[in-house]
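Is succinic acid placement plausible here? Inputs below.
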Amino acid sequence: MPMDIQQDKAYINGTWTTAADGRRFSVKDPWTDERIGEVPDIGRAEANDAVIAAHAAFAPWAKKLAVERADVLWRWHDLVQVHARTLAELMTRECGKPLTESIAEVRYGNSFIRWSAEEARRLHGEVIPTDQADRRLLVLRQPLGVVAAITPWNFPFSMITRKVVPALAAGCTVVLKPSEETPLSALALAALAQEAGLPAGVLNVLTTTDAQGVGEVLTTHPLVRKVTFTGSTAVGKLLMAQAAGTVKKVSLELGGNAPFIVFDDADLEAAVEGAMASKFRNAGQTCVCANRILVQRGIADRFIPLLAEHMSALRIGHGLEAGTHLGPLINEKAVAKVERSVADAVAQGAQVLMGGTRSGKRAFHPTLIVGVTPGMACFREEVFGPVAPVTVFDTEEEAIALANDTPYGLAAYVYTRDLARSWRMGEALEYGMVGLNTGLISTAVGPFGGVKESGIGREGSRHALEEFTEMKYFAMAGL
Ligand code: SIN
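Reply from A.M.:
I modeled the complex. Tokens:
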């Protein structure tokens, strides 16, 4: 019998907790503004309590056999599967994405639990061939300690499992601060973790509107050994600066400005389908979505109308309504940013072929802009909305120069059928991830992360667990 997973309290030291001063805040459906829940507005003092609880839980959790930790994670994984539909509906209600996407996100998020449970048992150290006869030289991989995880609203479930579960698998304990827009998915996950037998204090969830105050506790507390964050580059820089005071490790998955490059020799249908999948997932609110579409001149006249045709089939609606492709943007600020970006492009001479305006309260029409040049905001900054800005280029060198002309370096996409060009592009693009002939690259088994101002560290893949360990060199002499 599935349990009721929607919670209205924070989770500290294995206890469902209210704020010390009793304050609470509402969680709203971004499409209707209807209040769908209420959670405690946790402050600095309780954040400190959570760190102390996580620290107390660390030694016994780290001492468990890897297989014992893995067993708890497997139970968690199985419970998520049992509750997948309810988790997806909750996610759609709090962040607005279409239910089909939420269902896919629960599956994607759960794949990080599965992968981490599997990898927990494969966190190997090293034996170094010795340089002195009486010595044996080893490298131990030890868990870091308390990890602070700060997660965004655009993937309210999978960005938590992608950070938290590898940390737990490696033997760390976690204090999680989810976005104030989407705390319910985080609490539901914690309820399932508790049900799976995760010991008290190993995972703590702080719901708060005081991102600055609670963030400051987490990034400056001497007992926190690592901060892992997904969100904007501006906030990432701030957290990194705060964490520097106690020399914490940081993993940052920050903003992107993904070029989606289509060469003349591309499979046209595949390129349009890839652009649709990449651009309109979560209404364009992903860090890896195609931000700038760069199309070679010889194919542009066929690519642009076909993209417009596909875009015109997108249906805007409430995420729980069948047939919805695009839900609302997360809040008013997000819509205003997209409006500014479109207005800036128009003011600088670009042409809006389709859309360009908001739809209803908080959604935005799928928007196609052509004649986009490098000076425009939609070329330089993450749009974070369903806007496809197109720039036409002539040569491969020009495409590389345009693509790399940004301080960001998260994801890039290339469509070509030329094998030699594929290699050249894969090597030349200054990005942490490159998708060739695909618009979707995310998977638990691949290392996700960026270069330049898009971040530090990798999530997913076998490297994910290493990010939560310290290497200890162990020199044994006199043997
Ligand atoms: C993100 O937008 O930050 C994550 C997207 C993904 O995991 O595919």
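Short version: The radius of gyration is 23 Å.
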